[in-house]
Amino acid sequence: MSTVSITYNGNPGFEIADEFMQLLFHYIKEEVVKPQYNLTNKEDLISGLTFEINGYSSGNLSLRWSNMFTNSTEEQTMIQVLQNVIINLQNTGAFISVAEMQAIPTDNDDNFKLLFSRKPFPTAELIKIIDALIQMLQGTWTSTNYYMEINYKY
């Protein structure tokens, strides 16, 4: 697993295995495609998420949101997207099943399929990442523990 640095607007963020972000991006994309979200660069956002989910930037994954939102209203919209992803994950239960993870389309990433082939993934770990992303969008992220430990091993 490659480790990537997740930052927003040049502010320090956290480091995390790219496969965990790839998994999260799948759920963000499922939510952001819904018509109730008005974002100026929505198609670019969806395209970028798809690119990351498919594994085309494995080892070089990035958030790429700094120039995506044109104003604070759009940042608030993205926060709403993330909050709804949390609700969706909570409704899934404590774990995302292996079958569900294997069904995620990844055009170019056998490592993703292998990592998530043996055991379910705890939804609480994705929610932890989302909480950090929300804080980054709000400008309230102050953690100095830059490596985000995720409780999941192959």
Descriptive tags:
154 residues, two-stranded antiparallel sheet, mainly alpha, two-stranded antiparallel ribbon
Structural class: mainly alpha
Average pLDDT works out at 90
Poorly predicted spans = none
N-to-C CA distance: 10 Å
Tally of helical runs: 6
Helix content percent band? 40-55%
Number of strands: 4
Describe the fold and architecture.
- By secondary structure, the protein is mainly alpha-helical.
- The protein has helices spanning 18-32, 42-53, 72-92, 98-102, 110-115, 123-138; strands spanning 3-8, 11-17, 95-96, 121-122.
- A hairpin with a 2-residue loop joins strand 1 (3-8) and strand 2 (11-17).
- Helix 1 packs antiparallel against helix 2 and helix 3 (72-92) packs antiparallel against helix 6 (123-138).
- The longest helix has 21 residues, at 72-92.
- The termini are close together.
- The model has no long low-confidence stretch (mean pLDDT 90).
In short:
The protein is mainly alpha-helical. The chain contains six helices and four strands; from the N terminus they run E-E-H-H-H-E-H-H-E-H.
Write the layout of secondary structure elements.
Layout: E1 3-8, E2 11-17, H1 18-32, H2 42-53, H3 72-92, E3 95-96, H4 98-102, H5 110-115, E4 121-122, H6 123-138
Antiparallel strand pairs: 1-2, 3-4
Helix pairs in contact: 1-2, 1-3, 3-6
